[in-house]
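Figure 3 (text version): structure tokens given as input.
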């Protein structure tokens, strides 16, 4: 059953004014328009709703029974309209979902949680597995995820993006690595076995593509899904791991590993923030984007 919500605005005005002419004036409508709306309301409720008594329109029992609910519903609609144009982080209980590349989660989440919590203590934040390719546009458009943080990837024209980080690649090895010594050479880098962190079951890493452009190739001896487990393997073996410097620094403070400069010039790993154009002007999404950008720029 289709219901015209404007009818309930008319209903409240007639109830308040007790007169169709006055209600029409309050609503800036013509008297025939208000009378037409009242006829529709009477059919909906199967009740007169208002009975003429002299110059007054007195509510029936049905009208008196529903007026409180009608007014509360209209009030809630007004609140929804206001909130759709404004966002108050300090009182909001909104839940945000961010698709985050696994390699970035450990470095990005702690400052994000802290930064968001300072301004919006009641907001819930969840991260989801990396959303790839065409699925990214669908997830952002539907609202399944609010934002995505990933490397530069091809996206639909409806997906907006901005760069938020650029990090150089470095190499992690265990301390006192007997083969590396004090300085990691390119020859040693290519001769050692490598750990590749990837959520995919096969395929090369970004650094492998870049090495290939230079006519170089390394040996991937282990593929795993998480940086921490990769670092722990490196700590207990002669394998090495290539990581963005921010993540490498964090893990080196936790584990018995050493950071070495990458002995070949490769492009930095750039992180980009993605969102759908349908939320570009949404106050809550805009607040979250600005918070992500300001927090990461000030801490990374």
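Below: residues designed for each position.
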């Amino acid at each position: 059953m289709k219901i015209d919500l404007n009818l309930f605005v008319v209903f409240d005005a007639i109830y308040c004014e007790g007169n169709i002419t006055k209600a029409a004036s309050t609503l800036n409508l013509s008297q025939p328009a208000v009378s037409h709306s009242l006829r529709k309301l009477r059919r909906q409720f199967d009740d007169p709703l208002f009975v003429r008594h002299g110059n007054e329109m007195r509510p029936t029992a049905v009208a008196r029974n529903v007026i409180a609910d009608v007014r509360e519903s209209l009030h809630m609609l007004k609140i929804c309209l206001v909130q759709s144009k404004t966002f108050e982080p300090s009182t909001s209980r909104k839940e945000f979902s961010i698709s985050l590349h696994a390699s970035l989660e450990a470095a990005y989440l702690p400052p994000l949680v802290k930064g968001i919590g300072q301004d919006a203590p009641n907001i819930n934040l969840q991260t989801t597995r990396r959303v790839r390719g065409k699925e990214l546009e669908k997830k952002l458009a539907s609202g399944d995820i609010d934002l995505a943080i990933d490397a530069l990837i091809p996206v639909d024209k409806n997906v907006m993006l901005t760069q938020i980080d650029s990090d150089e690649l470095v190499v992690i090895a265990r301390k006192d690595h007997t083969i590396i010594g004090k300085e990691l050479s390119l020859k040693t880098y290519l001769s050692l076995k490598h750990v590749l962190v990837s959520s995919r079951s096969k395929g090369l890493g970004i650094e492998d593509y870049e090495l290939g452009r230079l006519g170089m190739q390394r040996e991937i001896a282990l593929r795993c899904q998480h940086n921490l487990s990769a670092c722990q393997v490196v700590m207990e073996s002669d394998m090495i791991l290539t990581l963005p410097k921010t993540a490498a620094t964090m893990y080196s403070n936790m584990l018995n590993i050493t950071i070495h400069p990458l002995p070949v010039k490769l492009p930095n790993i750039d992180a980009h923030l993605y969102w759908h154009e349908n939320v570009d002007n949404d106050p809550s999404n805009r607040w979250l984007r600005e918070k992500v950008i300001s927090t990461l720029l000030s801490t990374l």
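The two ends are 55 Å apart (CA to CA).
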